[in-house]
């Protein structure tokens, strides 16, 4: 292996390990209707480790950092106004880096950390921190400041001046680019004083500064030409150092067959799994992308001639230079036929092959046994109690320090169809440790689920070193089937993504003026062996429910490999429809944490043959395509594009180029019965995208979800909805319409049930809905029991008397 290739392979291995240590999980553990996880990324390793890793990376890359110009300020000049930046600068707002909320600095010495990654194919040549902040007007200003450090190295101090106290201040801080490596920690440390006396209260309310999440890091970068080496995968096509949305073009053959589309979908699900919270979009292009990396999927005979690739000898994976874009790469997945392309994709996404060098041929691949229901790697196991160490990447994420630490956050993604027939919550067996106060005070541990308080546990003083608490979390304990509204209950009550937040509030131990312990940093931790248990839930849900699909891909993700799913695409799918298909496959991988290895791609003509064995996702923009399926009578919505030109169909007289959509809504159903007058015929000018679900006709519990628009180009309007947490929360019921950025959700069709509830649970669930009847039955049962006991005692007394 060439030296440069050898180094890059080693660098990737080291960087991946470091990424797992530094970056806590930023996946959005938000229930349906929640925004992505609003958490400040806390450091999971110390700065010395990061600095050491930076030094190792610096030493190994020939000339990479040496080429970076020296910032005059190794003493880092601080300016009072915003500096102009070139159009090519990379702007990274703190909100993009995990600091979704204000960074609150409190006390004499408090620090907050933001993690920053630099792509493997870029090198930082200049860096500016644009800091937006507000601070207390009650400080001793000559002694108070904010210290800025990168990877443990102090690079600047920001003075806190009396004239700007209490106001929003913006400062540009020039940073030395040599401090930046692949993974970086930007630390903001408040050093504050409010008096010149020797006995300051470290918890005094005057000691504060707030850093706005609109603060940003502005990086000037240059391209680094990477070798053509499969060992670098998934970089540079996906780089985990990059926190922005993944946009990866796919080049497919013209009018690709089902097998090629399926192979591309499996590959997209893998990239979507890797992108996770970043989101991913996979546009389909007709030629080599001119400004980005790209993926080429297809048999050898369909590959672009300008690639000039040798004929493959079997399933082949290659990384080649992109002839259309300097310093960009192409991932080529090919073979002599569609079956070999499929095997090459399977080898890549499973990582079974030892990939290295510019190309490899797959000799054999075994994708293993089909997945079992509800065993998606990103879902919490629901058949046993689960320890916290299984739910975090690093046990260090369960530890905090400081007098006002951020919450410990544990993401809990569970199946959407969990049903608590007994109405109880989720048992949580919590064990924790903390720096015990020496006096009785208000120190407490607040337990929250999705930012809602469940219980607050008082932390005893030093006589009790450890604490334990048992509680019931009221998660997913509501029964959505009881709703009688025309629209489903709010999505956050039936969502599949949750976040458990454990916040230690360690109160000040000061008992009087200048009386108290020294301002030593206090620590708290949750034991990794603490458990949470979803095993008493059953799988039972009322369908269709778009909230389930929009937040977790249910019911398709019930099997992580999508072995029970068929995706229906139009007979002549265009670029927009293929993009929608690939992007939805990316979402499936994001939701499950597993590539969609067994998904099936079909055309409308094959729907009838698979109706009894598959749940189906239909992705298509042309309104007339659904007419080719046997679903026509069951559709809750029909779209029809009318001619907009004057004198066109319908005699609308609309201006040329106007798109008019007509749709019919069937009867509204409530409690299993149609509501009189529930049909409507509506017409509207302009674009319209729709998402709706229903039960496949002639089946029991087999679901269909349709993504459609007045034209294929408007499918992107629906894809945009899936990338915004506030929009996802509005996808409910069985019909959602998207037009002009507005989302309307309705319940217009009949419902059906999936899953199973034991007979005893059905009886109990029915009984608790009628407490008066339940009381009467209890009284009657007690009376019958008393009569039975009376008769038995009478017979026993008669025997004793010899009667």
Automatic annotation (TrEMBL):
It holds the Pfam family BcsB. The chain crosses the membrane at residues 772-793. Keywords: c-di-GMP, Cell inner membrane, Cell membrane, Cellulose biosynthesis, Membrane, Signal, Transmembrane, Transmembrane helix. Residues 1-32 form the signal peptide. It comes from the Bacteria. Tightly associated with the cellulose synthase catalytic subunit. Belongs to the AcsB/BcsB family. Binds the cellulose synthase activator, bis-(3'-5') cyclic diguanylic acid (c-di-GMP). This is Cyclic di-GMP-binding protein.
């Amino acid at each position: 292996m060439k030296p440069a290739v050898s180094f890059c392979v080693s660098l990737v291995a080291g960087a991946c390990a470091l990424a797992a240590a530094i970056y806590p999980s930023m996946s959005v553990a938000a229930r349906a209707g929640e925004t992505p996880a609003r958490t400040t990324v806390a450091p999971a390793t110390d700065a010395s480790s990061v600095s050491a890793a930076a030094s190792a990376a610096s030493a190994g890359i020939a000339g990479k950092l040496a080429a970076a110009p020296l910032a005059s300020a190794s003493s880092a000049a601080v300016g009072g106004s915003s500096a102009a930046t070139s159009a090519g600068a990379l702007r990274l707002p703190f909100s993009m880096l995990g600091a979704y909320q204000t960074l609150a600095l409190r006390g004499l010495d408090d620090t907050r950390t933001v993690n920053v990654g630099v792509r493997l194919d870029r090198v930082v040549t200049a860096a500016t921190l644009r800091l937006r902040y507000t601070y207390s007007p009650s400080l001793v200003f000559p002694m108070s400041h904010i210290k800025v450090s990168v990877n443990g190295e102090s690079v600047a101090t920001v003075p806190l001046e009396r004239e700007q106290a209490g106001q929003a201040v913006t400062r540009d801080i020039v940073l030395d680019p040599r401090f930046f490596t692949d993974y970086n920690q930007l630390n903001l440390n408040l050093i504050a004083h409010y008096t010149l006396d020797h006995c300051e209260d470290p918890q005094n309310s005057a000691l504060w500064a707030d850093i706005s999440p609109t603060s940003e890091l502005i990086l000037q970068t240059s391209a680094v030409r990477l070798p053509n080496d499969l060992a670098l995968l998934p970089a540079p096509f996906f780089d985990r150092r990059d926190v922005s949305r993944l946009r990866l073009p796919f080049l497919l053959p013209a009018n690709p067959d089902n097998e090629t589309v399926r192979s591309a979908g499996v590959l997209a699900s893998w990239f979507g799994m890797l992108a996770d919270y970043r989101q991913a979009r996979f546009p389909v292009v007709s030629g080599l992308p001119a400004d980005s990396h790209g993926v080429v999927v297809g048999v050898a005979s369909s590959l672009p001639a300008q690639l000039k690739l040798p004929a493959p000898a079997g399933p082949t994976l290659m990384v080649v230079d992109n002839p259309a874009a300097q310093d960009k790469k192409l991932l080529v997945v090919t073979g002599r036929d569609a079956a070999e392309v499929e095997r090459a994709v399977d080898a890549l996404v499973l990582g079974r092959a030892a990939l290295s060098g510019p190309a490899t041929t797959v000799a054999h691949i075994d994708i293993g046994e089909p997945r079992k229901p509800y065993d998606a790697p990103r879902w919490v196991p629901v058949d046993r109690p689960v320890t916290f160490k299984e739910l975090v990447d690093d046990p260090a994420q369960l530890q905090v320090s400081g007098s006002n630490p951020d919450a410990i956050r544990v993401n809990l993604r569970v199946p959407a169809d969990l049903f608590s027939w007994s109405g109880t919550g989720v048992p949580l067996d919590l064990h924790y440790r903390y720096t015990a106060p020496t006096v009785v005070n208000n120190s407490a541990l607040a337990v929250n689920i999705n930012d809602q308080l469940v219980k607050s546990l008082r932390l005893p003083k030093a006589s009790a070193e450890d604490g334990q608490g048992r509680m019931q979390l009221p998660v997913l304990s509501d029964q959505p089937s009881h709703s009688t509204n025309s629209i489903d209950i709010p999505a956050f009550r039936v969502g599949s993504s949750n976040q458990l937040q454990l916040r230690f509030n360690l109160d000040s131990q000061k008992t009087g003026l200048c009386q108290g312990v020294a301002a030593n940093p206090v620590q708290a931790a949750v034991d990794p062996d603490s458990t949470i248990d979803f095993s008493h839930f059953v799988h039972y849900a009322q369908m269709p429910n778009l909230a389930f699909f929009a937040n977790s891909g249910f019911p398709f993700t019930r099997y992580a490999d999508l072995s029970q799913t068929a995706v229906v695409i139009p007979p002549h799918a265009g670029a927009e429809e293929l993009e929608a298909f690939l992007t939805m496959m990316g979402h499936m991988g994001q939701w499950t944490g597993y590539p969609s290895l067994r998904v099936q791609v079909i055309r409308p003509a094959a729907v009838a043959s698979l109706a009894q064995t598959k749940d189906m996702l239909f992705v298509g923009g042309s309104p007339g395509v659904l007419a080719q399926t046997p679903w026509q009578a069951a559709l809750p919505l029909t779209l029809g594009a009318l001619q907009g030109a004057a004198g066109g169909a319908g005699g609308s007289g609309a201006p040329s180029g106007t798109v008019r959509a007509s749709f019919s809504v069937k009867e509204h159903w409530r409690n299993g019965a149609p509501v009189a007058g529930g049909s409507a015929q509506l017409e509207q000018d302009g674009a319209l995208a729709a998402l709706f679900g229903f039960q496949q006709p002639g089946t029991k519990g087999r679901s269909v979800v349709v993504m459609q628009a007045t034209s294929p180009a408007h499918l992107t309007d629906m894809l945009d909805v899936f990338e915004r947490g506030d929009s996802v929360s509005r996808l409910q019921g069985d019909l959602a319409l998207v037009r002009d950025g507005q989302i309307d959700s309705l319940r217009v069709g009949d419902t059906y049930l999936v899953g199973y509830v034991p007979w005893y649970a059905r009886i109990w669930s029915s009984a608790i809905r009628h407490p008066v009847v339940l009381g009467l039955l209890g009284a009657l049962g007690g009376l019958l029991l008393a009569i039975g006991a009376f008769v038995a005692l009478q017979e026993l007394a008669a025997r004793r008397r010899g009667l």
